[in-house]
Specification:
The chain is of the alpha+beta class. The protein is 15% helix and 43% strand.
Length: 282
């Protein structure tokens, strides 16, 4: 049996198993990732994130969903990567550059009284709105805003935004009572989305304040999704529902999103370590 060291972390409830692969090239099979992510038989998480050396940045984030499939990016996950590398002494930088499947992301980390990272602001880059790049099987260069989609008798409208991974933002009257677990997987796997899609079901609470439930491709409903919150910030502005600075409440906590005049989206939120240990792989 192979033993592996891990750290369990979360960003507002979006939890991952983090593995330090900076000194050793650790690789796991799809089944091993599924085992670690399993909440009954493993550690339990939304997936596994390896922290590896990077040629272009300070570290590389190599991310996998709980079903073992690879993923480009996770906004909550990258905040925890920043906390991991700083708190464990792998870097002394409070503004490290993290290489992701989306590209290089710059973090700006705030320390608490004990010298540990507590809040992280991430430059998530510019949103991608061109349909074929989201990707979406629709022609033309114009952003897909309030596009009608009928699923199981529900007439929905979605706005398509990529933050390095694809999102369909759907505004509804009451996210809490909405059948997310029924419609989420149907939208995720709709033929319009060749690489599947993450779905945000959003309710406006007032002003620039929103509540979001997220159906993540490959993971199901999660307590939070950082890139999804960024997509909601962008979509709410495109739809005229909000200014460029918004507060988004999710099941696991709160994120602050700013779509700057430079075109870049900034996300600010907490990062927390839950526990660490060693586990036998089956």
């Amino acid at each position: 049996m192979r033993k592996i060291r891990f750290t369990k972390m979360h960003g507002i409830g979006n939890d991952y198993v983090y593995i330090d692969a900076t000194k050793e090239d650790i690789r796991l099979t799809e089944k091993e990732i599924q085992f670690l992510s399993n909440r009954n038989f493993g550690i339990g998480s939304d997936g596994v994130i390896f922290i590896r050396p990077s040629k272009d940045g300070d570290f590389m984030m190599d991310m996998y969903n709980s079903d073992g499939s690879s993923s480009e990016m996770c906004g909550n996950g990258v905040r925890c990567v920043g906390k991991f590398v700083y708190d464990k002494g792998l870097t002394s930088k409070t503004r490290p550059i993290i290489e992701t499947g989306k590209g290089l992301l710059e973090l700006d980390m705030e320390l608490d009284d004990t010298g540990k990272v507590s809040m992280v602001k991430v430059n998530m880059g510019e949103p991608i709105l061109k349909p074929e790049l989201v990707p979406l099987k629709m022609s033309g260069d114009k952003p897909i805003i309030n596009q009608e989609l009928e699923i199981s008798g529900y007439k929905l409208k979605f706005t398509a935004v990529s933050m390095g991974n694809p999102h369909a933002v759907v505004f509804v009257e009451d996210s809490d009572s909405f059948p997310v677990n029924e419609l989420g997987p149907q939208i995720e796997n709709h033929p319009l989305f060749p690489r599947r899609v993450n779905v945000e079901f959003v309710t406006k609470l007032g002003g620039n304040h929103f509540y979001q439930r997220t159906w993540e491709r490959g993971a199901g409903e999660t307590l939070a999704c950082g890139t999804g919150a960024c997509a909601v910030g962008v979509a709410s502005n495109l739809l005229g529902k909000a200014d460029k600075k918004v507060r988004i409440d999710l099941k696991g906590g709160t994120l602050w999103i700013e779509w700057a005049d430079t075109g870049e989206v900034f996300m600010t939120g907490p990062a927390e370590t839950v526990f660490e240990g060693e586990i036998d792989l089956p």
